[in-house]
Amino acid sequence: MKIVSLALIIIGISGFVLFCCAQTERRPFVGAAKLLDYEVFKTKVEPIFLKKRGDHARCYVCHENSRVAFNLVPLSAGQDGWTEEQSRRNFQMVSALIVPGEPTKSRLLMHPLDPRAGGDPSPLGVHDGGHQFSSQDDPDWMVLADWVRKKVSTDSAQ
Amino acid sequence: MQSSKTASQNQPGRYLARLRALSAVLFGLVLAASLQASTVRVYIVNDGGTTISIIDPATNTVVGAVHDVEGPETIHFSPDGSQGYIAKRAESILNILDTKTGKIIKRVPLSGRPDDLAVTPDGKLVAVNIQDKPGALDIVDAKSLENIKTIPTPNGQWLHDVIVTKDSKYAIAGQPDGDEAVVFDLVGQKVAFELPLDEGIMPLEIQSNADGSGKLLFLQLRRTNGFAVFDFAKRTLVAKVNFPEVQGGFKLRDAFSHGMALSPDGKTLLLASRPNNAIYAYSLPDLKLLGSVQLPEIKLANGTTLGASPNWIAFTPDGKLAYISNTAANSVSVIDAEALKLVTNIPVGEAPGKIGVLLIPSGKR
């Protein structure tokens, strides 16, 4: 009887560990912001959200104060960029859509990427803003990917 | 609630230049259209882009575009074709277009960012549903071009899609997060009643009685691969209809059924199913399934396929053709509404969404 109980406990613990691992794979790492470089975000990544790229609507046009997870802070009146405090808030929000070190597992990169170029045919539905990046060679997509790939050490992280 | 200003609003010079360009393009198109009698044009709003594509249903080709409308949200026209109403996602503004001159004649401030709009059949009012919280219905007088009333939603939830009854007395909008349809009294300019459901409401349509009053109200639901039918006068649920089950299908979390249009004669209802990647036709009032039309699939490098993600549907005024915007495929499918056959797929801009149909009656130009 004791052996059976012990076996059940071990199976239960193993199942829990496996479940946690699976969740880590599927969901962005909770502490992602600690592993991402804020300065790179502010100087290289954030400007992409305001950049006019071809015939695409800018990210900001749809994601300013939006209902979805990618929800950018509205610019202050008369400003064409975010303040330090606003950028920090954007950084925290965007970090939740990133798996540090894993661009192709990061929703921020995969959702607006053309599915024919590897973008996610997500069960959440297609990106309502269309295929903002036609390939993983898109220069702006590569900036995002580089930022995600280069994890910073937790000691030096902001 | 007034939304915050966008970057484009912060640059009035650039905006005015864009407005002039937009006006010039529209003017050329309208002028060309005026050479024909009784002209029809189908306007496709490219949600993820900066244009609205214009299709000539006589040839099913793109014959022009409205340019420099970044993040367009919706476009519709007055019944006589004299005015167009254009809204952009990031602006709390309704742009009024004079289709004869092609000029934006007024920018009407709204209470928040618009989601969609509907013009009453008598042409007197434009009902604009607001997608910012707290949700509201703005009523714009089509003659004075003033926003004459903002009616807040009872529960503070945002509104998605809006339709009006043929007698011009009611506007109805859905709440994807509020699980109810809100019916607005356009005469008394107040909330008339609410229709609560057990899930969010996506697009809507209404069938009319001979006197123009509402008969059957059709609602697409957030997590149902089908639709609900209400008796509008009795305010009771008549039926919930599920689309035929298909093997496999395209997986989604929600918004299974999005896009619906009632034929001009009120006898046929077309609805889109995203998991089934198809359009279904039902006869009214018996809700008999008449048939379906498969939409194009997107082939991926790994051998799998994606659905076209049908989004919105609109009929031509004669009811012969229906246009379906395919958000994932960047295309519009044209269907022969009687034969239920796919006529063609037309490439358009980025992430096509809502559809406006312009009819300029013969003798109007």
Topology diagram in text:
The complex is a heterodimer of chains A (158) and B (365).
Chain A: H1 2-26, H2 32-35, H3 38-50, H4 59-63, H5 84-95, H6 107-110, H7 139-149
Helix pairs in contact in A: 3-5, 3-7
Chain B: H1 12-33, E1 39-46, E2 52-56, E3 61-66, E4 72-77, E5 83-88, E6 93-98, E7 103-109, E8 114-119, E9 125-130, E10 136-141, E11 146-152, E12 160-164, E13 170-175, E14 180-185, E15 190-196, E16 201-208, E17 214-221, E18 226-231, E19 236-242, E20 260-262, E21 268-273, E22 278-283, E23 288-294, E24 298-299, E25 305-306, E26 310-315, E27 321-326, E28 331-336, E29 341-347, E30 352-360
Antiparallel strand pairs in B: 1-2, 1-30, 2-3, 4-5, 5-6, 6-7, 8-9, 9-10, 10-11, 12-13, 13-14, 14-15, 16-17, 17-18, 18-19, 20-21, 21-22, 22-23, 24-25, 26-27, 27-28, 28-29
What does this structure look like?
The complex is a heterodimer of chains A (158) and B (365). In chain A, helix 3 (38-50) crosses helix 5 (84-95) and helix 3 (38-50) packs antiparallel against helix 7. Chain A is mostly helical and 158 residues long. Chain A is built from seven helices and no strands. Residues 15-27 of chain A have low confidence and may be disordered. Chain A has helices at residues 2-26, 32-35, 38-50, 59-63, 84-95, 107-110, 139-149. Chain B has 365 residues and is mostly beta strands. In chain B, strand 10 (136-141) and strand 11 (146-152) form a beta hairpin. The longest helix of chain B has 22 residues, at 12-33. Chain B is globular. Chain B starts with 11 loop residues before the first helix and ends in a 5-residue tail after the last strand. The model of chain B is unreliable at 1-12 and 30-35 (pLDDT under 50). Classes of the chains: A mainly alpha (158), B mainly beta (365).
